[in-house]
Structure formats: C-alpha cells, structure tokens
Backbone:
C-alpha cells in the first residue's frame, strides 16, 4: 500500500510521518506538495502536524483552500482514507470533512507533553488492531486542540461512535484532570460517519520506536495497514 | 481620490462558547479594581477595501465571511459597510 504525506508551507511533522511509514513500517510513501493536484495513487493521505500558513486567521483555515486539499476532499468523499494529525485535524474540521472545531486550549497555553488516550471504538480502520479500553501513551503539542461542537451535535457524534480516542489517566479513567486542553467529553480523536476520515490531536508518528519513549503510535499505523490489506487476511 | 468602499467585518465567538481570553482579561480587570465590568468577550475585526464598481457586494461579503473569515461552528459575524 502507498501513503501520501501532504506538505503545506509551515508543516513541521511531515518528515516524522514520512519516516514512521517508510523506515519503521516499511511501506511506500510519497510527499504531496500543497500546490499539486495529484495524490500520486495514495491509498491513504496524511495531513501532518505543524503550522500550515503560519496558523494565520485560525489553525487550518487557509490550508483548506490549497490545490491539494481539493483533491483530498474528493478522495475522502469517495471513501479514500485521510488521517489528520494535530494541524491536520484542524484542517479537516475547517474544510468540513470532520464535524466540530478545535478552539484555543482552555488554559490558553501551548501544551507539549505526553498524555494517555483511551481507545473508544475499534470498529474503525485507525484503531483496528487495538482493543476498546486500550490506553496509549502519545505526546501532544498544540495550542488549539480544544474540541468543541454545539449542543446536539456532540450527542450525535457519541451516538454514532465517532469518538475514537479520549484523553484519560494512565489507568484509562476519563477525568477532567486528564483532559489537556478543555476538549468536550475529553475528545482526542474522532472519525467521520463513514469511518474513513480520522482526526486526532496527539502525534502517533512521534512514538514509533523505543528510543522515542513509547511505541504506542505503532498500534495506529499497524491498524491502518492491517485494515487496508486484502480482505482474506482479515479473517 | 478613490471612491472605493470599505467594509468592516466583526467576528466573535458565538454566545455560549467559552472565551478563555475574555475570562482572563475580565479577571485582570477585577484585580485592577475595575469591578463594574461584569464580563469580557473578545473578537477580531477585518477591514476590507472594495472596488467602487463591485457588484453583488452584500452577497459576496457574506460568502467571504462564512467561507473564510469566520468559522460558523464557533463564530458569528457582523458586517458594517462604509
């Protein structure tokens, strides 16, 4: 399978994502330039973390109009897999591929630290190899990760099992203290209704080797690869 | 002299959406002794200069606001034309 990693001006986790896929997972991967209109046959597109277009206006607000995003939106709407990490998640909410919005962290500070995430739904390609209740140790690094949606919509999201990851403590308890940014319902990662588009604030691509402090990010990349393999290997 | 028109767009968080910056500013005001200010909400504004002969300006301004300047999930906007 082939991954594509989009580089916007200001992306700074594109090489991490590329390296995790190529050097750790051993899969084919290409960079996709923001001005390009060609996904180069990618089976999955990663919108990486960073500060696309300097975060001017709002995180992700300008990136959504770049030529590559037009193709990414078409790809996602026809069932293609798209994963947004951090700034990538912001871009996905801005362009409407994912519901809600990512607001300024409630404590107003940029937060760069390890957090714990509980897997809420594994009937989804991005958590396919996890068990519900698994706790993953993954870092965050953001100033605008406070997930918000208005009344009624959050309930729909929960009802449709679109919440894939929730911030928790190291034992998997969902507590206000474990919430690093004020996100509603401790939401750290969601998918669209169809399940092919995922957005998450934490950075799985930063924790794929022992030397990096955790390998829990591997579980997400392994899930993606397992879910995309031919159906007979899924049993 | 130019006859260009101007529009000022005010973007603010919708009512009910927590504005932590506003809360922090309000706390600072209270500490400074300005206790009569009950709350503070922040926002931002944009000045747009518009060609004098532009057509359909109201509709196009509305599009610009909803597509780019404001995020309709969390923000509302008002437009003043000059």
Residues:
């Amino acid at each position: 399978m082939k991954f594509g990693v989009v580089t916007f001006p200001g992306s700074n986790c594109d090489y991490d994502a590329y390296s995790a896929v190529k050097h750790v997972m051993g899969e084919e991967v290409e960079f996709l330039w923001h001005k390009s209109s060609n996904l180069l046959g990618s089976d999955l597109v990663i919108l990486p973390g960073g500060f696309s277009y300097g975060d001017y206006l709002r995180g992700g607000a300008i990136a959504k109009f770049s030529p590559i995003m037009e193709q990414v939106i078409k790809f996602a709407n026809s069932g293609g897999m798209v994963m947004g990490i951090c700034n990538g998640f912001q871009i996905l909410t801005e362009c409407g591929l994912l519901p809600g919005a990512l607001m300024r962290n409630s404590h107003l500070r940029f937060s760069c630290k390890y957090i714990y995430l509980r897997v809420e739904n594994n009937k989804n390609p991005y958590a396919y190899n996890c068990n519900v209740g698994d706790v993953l140790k993954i870092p965050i690094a953001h100033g605008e990760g406070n997930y918000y949606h208005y009344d009624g919509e959050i309930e729909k999201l929960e009802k449709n099992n679109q919440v894939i990851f929730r911030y928790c403590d190291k034992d998997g308890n969902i507590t206000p203290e474990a919430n690093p940014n004020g996100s509603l319902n401790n939401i750290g990662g969601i998918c669209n209704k169809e399940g092919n588009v995922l957005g998450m604030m934490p950075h799985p691509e930063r924790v794929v080797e022992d030397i990096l402090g955790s390998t829990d990010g591997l579980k997400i990349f392994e899930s993606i690869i397992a879910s995309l393999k031919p159906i007979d290997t899924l049993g | 002299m130019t006859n260009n028109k101007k529009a000022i767009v005010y973007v603010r968080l919708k009512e009910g959406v927590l504005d932590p910056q506003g809360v922090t500013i309000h706390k600072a005001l209270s500490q400074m002794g300005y206790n009569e200010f009950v709350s503070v909400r922040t926002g931002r504004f944009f000045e747009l200069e518009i060609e004098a002969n532009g057509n359909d300006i109201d509709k196009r301004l509305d599009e610009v606001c909803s597509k780019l300047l404001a995020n309709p999930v969390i923000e509302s906007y008002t437009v003043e034309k000059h």
Remarks:
- Chain B has one domain: 5-81.
